Amino acid sequence: MNLEMLNTPQREAVEHTEGPLLILAGAGSGKTRVLTHRTAYLIEELGVNPYHIMAITFTNKAAGEMRERIDDMVGYGSESIWVTTFHSTCVRILRRYIDRLGYGTNFTIYDADDQKTLMKEICKRLEIDTKIYKEKMFLSVISSAKDELIDPIEFTTRAAGDYNKRRQADVYREYQAELKKNNALDFDDLIFKTVELFKLNKDVLDSYQERFRYIMVDEYQDTNTAQFELIRLLAMKYKNLCVVGDDDQSIYKFRGANIYNILNFEKHFPDAKVIKLEQNYRSTQNILDAANSVIANNVGRKEKSLWTDNGRGDKITFEQLDSAYEEADYVARDIAGKVRRGEYTYHDCAVLYRTNAQSRLFEERFINSNIPYKIVGGVNFYARREIKDLLAYLKTIDNGRDDLAVKRIINVPKRGIGAASLAKVSDYAAEKEMDFYQALRWADEIPGIGRAAAKIKPFVLFIQSMKARAENGSISELLQKIIEETGYVAELEAEGTDEAQSRIENIDEFMSKVVSYEEGTDEPTLSGFLEEVALVADIDGLDDNSDYVVLMTLHSAKGLEFPNVYLAGMEDGLFPSYMSITADNSDQEIEEERRLAYVGITRAKEHLTITSARMRMVRGQTQYGAVSRFVKEIPSELLKGEIYEPKNYHDEPMQESTYQKARKAFRSTPVSYGSRTPQYTPVTNQRSFESSNTTGAALSYQVGDRVRHMKFGDGEVKAIVAGGRDYEVTVDFDKAGTKKMFSSFAKLKKI
Ligand code: ATP
Ligand code: MG
C-alpha cells in the first residue's frame, strides 16, 4: 500500500492501529481520508480480516461516500466491512437480538407522525390537558432523556417532588409501555435499546466485541451520550478505537450532541494517542483565512492553526443584492456563466443555505434558466407534503376538477371519512360521469353512504365558502384562511419537532411566493397562479442527469467538498437565525451558528461566493436584514465586494413603498401562527434601536483613539459606522491587521 499519498501525521495515524486514537483536526485536513486509508492499511499490511472492521458516520450520504472510497482502495472483500450510520448499525443488531429485550425481531420503526399519534392517545388516556401540556413537549423531553440514556424508572427517580417532572415521567412510562405493546421502536430507541441489549446480555456484547476489533468513527464531535456509550461498549475489549472530528464543526447540539465526548476523549481513554492534522488540502489560503477568522470569534475552543499549500487563490466574492429574488438570479447567472466559459461543470457547484425553505427561489430560477439541479437530503420544494397539500386545496377551490387533489385533502385534517365511503363516492362519480368533487356535493344521494354523508358535508361547505372568497379577495388572504380554518400550521406547531418547524418555514415561503405573484402580476387570479406554479412544480425528472448543481442546507453539507460554493442568505436574522440572536443563552447559540458558518465556508475548494439580500419576503412580508455578522468577521482584504448598509433603512423610499405594499396585500398582519416569533426584526425596529441604543451613544472611544481587544490586542480606531442593529467599528490592530467588528460584541476598551 502506498503511504506516500499521506503526510507525516496522517501516516502516523494510519499506522497507529492498536489502542485508542483521537484525530482532532480542522476542516479539509484529511480526517476522512485517514479513515479510508487506515482501513486499507489494516487489511493489506496487517492482514486484518475485513469482517473485523467497522466505520461509522452520521448521514447516509457520508456513509455512501466513505463506502465508495473504501471499495476503491480495498477491492475484494470490502463488502464485509460495516460502513454505516449509527442508526442502521443498531437496526442490524436489533433485528437479530432484540427478542432478548422482549420485543419481536420484526419490530416496526415509528416516524414522527406515528410518535405524535401515539402521544395524542396517551395524553387523552392520562387526561392531560394538551392545551397546557403540549404533546410536542413530552416527545422532546423523552427524546432528550433517551439521548442521555435515562429510562423511565431513572426519570421517575430524578423527578422526585417536582410535579411537572412527575407528570412527564408518567407519560414517558406509558409511552414506552405502549411502544413495546405495539412492538415498535422510535428513532431514539434504536440506539438506546442497543446499549440496553449490550448491558444486559454480556454474550451478545462479547460477540460484537469479537467481531468489531477495529472501530472507526467519523464526525465524532456530533455524537451524543447514547452513541458514545454504544461505541465505548463495543470498543471496551480490544480498545482499537479511532475517532476523528473537529470541535469547530459540532453543529448538532440541538439533537443532543455532546461536545465533551470529543473534548474529554483523553479522560475516557487515558492511554489515548492524540494526533493533530494542520495541513488543509481542500481549500485556497483565502478561503481558509476567512474560515479561521470567523471561527476565531468563538471562545473556549481548542486552538488550531490550519494552513495550505494551495496558494492564495481568488478572493471571496461578496455580493449584496436588493432582494432574495435577485440573489437567486445572481447565483443562477453566475453558474451559467462559469459553465459556459468552461470554468466549471454544474457538478462542481453547490448552493448552501440555512433553512430548507430558501431552496424555493433557487429552484425556480434554475428551472427557468435550464440549470440542472438536485436537492440533497431533501425534496424539491413543490414536492414537499405541506406544499402539495396547500396546492391541492387551492386547486380544489379553483375548479375541483383535479380528482387527485380533492382526494389528497379530503382527510387533511382528519375528517374521519373512511376508505369504504370514499370508494362509494368514486363509484358514484364514475357511474354518473362526474368529477369526484361533484359527487361529494351529491353525497346525500349516494347509495349506502350512510353517516359518512354528514362528515363530507362540512368539507364541501368549506370549499364552497372558499370559492366565494376566492372570487372577491386576494389569493394570499385565501391561503391564510385555509391555513387557519384547517389548523394546518397550528397542528405542526403542536408537533414541535425540527421537521415540523421546517414544514412551517416552507409554508411561510409558499405564502411569500403567493404575495410576490400578486405583486408582480397586473391581474392576479387563482388560476393564473396555479398555472405559473405548475410550470415549475411538475418538473422533477432531472435525476437521470449526473451533471447537476446541488442545493442543500449547511447541516447536510458536512464532510462534503465542491470547487465552487455559494453561501446564500447571509443576513442577520436568517443566519445567524433570529432564534439564536434572541435566545436566553444567545452567546452559545450564536457560537453554534458560527460553527455552521465555518462548516459552510470550508466546503469550498477554489471559489467561494457569499450572497445576502437587503430585503427578503418572509411569510408574505418584506423584511430587512443587515448583512450577517459572520460576513463582517471576514477581514475585508479577503473579500471582493462591498458591504453596504444604509444608516437607517427608513431613508430608503423604494424599500419602504414595497414594504407598505406587502403590508397592504396582507392586512391581517402579523400572520398569527400561534406563539411563533417573526424571523426578523421588522423595519421599524431599526429606528427604535437608534433611539434606545445605549451602546452607540455611550461608545467610550472615537475615531483616532487607541483601543484594546481581548483577542486581537491593541490598535487604532479607523472608522465608526452605524449599521444594522449596532455600531460597526473598524480597527487597525498592530498585530492582527484591520478588522471590522460590532461594538457590542467587540467589547473594545480605550487605552
Ligand atoms: P471535513 O472536516 O470537512 O470532514 P476532512 O478532514 O475529513 O474534512 P477530507 O475530506 O478527508 O478532509 O480531505 C479533504 C480533501 O483533501 C480531500 O479532497 C482529500 O482527498 C484531500 N487530501 C487529504 N489529505 C491529502 C494528502 N495527504 N494529499 C493529497 N490530498 C489530500
Ligand atoms: Mg471528513
Task: Write up what this structure looks like.
Helix content is 47%, strand content 16%. It is an alpha/beta fold and 751 residues long. The protein folds into five domains: 8-98 and 192-279, P-loop containing nucleotide triphosphate hydrolases (Rossmann fold, 3-Layer(aba) Sandwich), CATH 3.40.50; 111-182, Arc Repressor Mutant, subunit A (Orthogonal Bundle); 316-372 and 547-640, 3-Layer(aba) Sandwich (Rossmann fold), CATH 3.40.50; 382-541, PCRA, domain 4 (Orthogonal Bundle), CATH 1.10.486; 705-750. Strands 11, 12, 13, 14, 15, 16, 17 and 18 form an eight-stranded mixed sheet that branches. The chain is globular. The site of magnesium ion (MG) has 4 residues, from helix 2. Adenosine-5'-triphosphate binds at residues 5-7, 10, 25, 27-33, 246, 249, 281-282, 559, 561, 602.
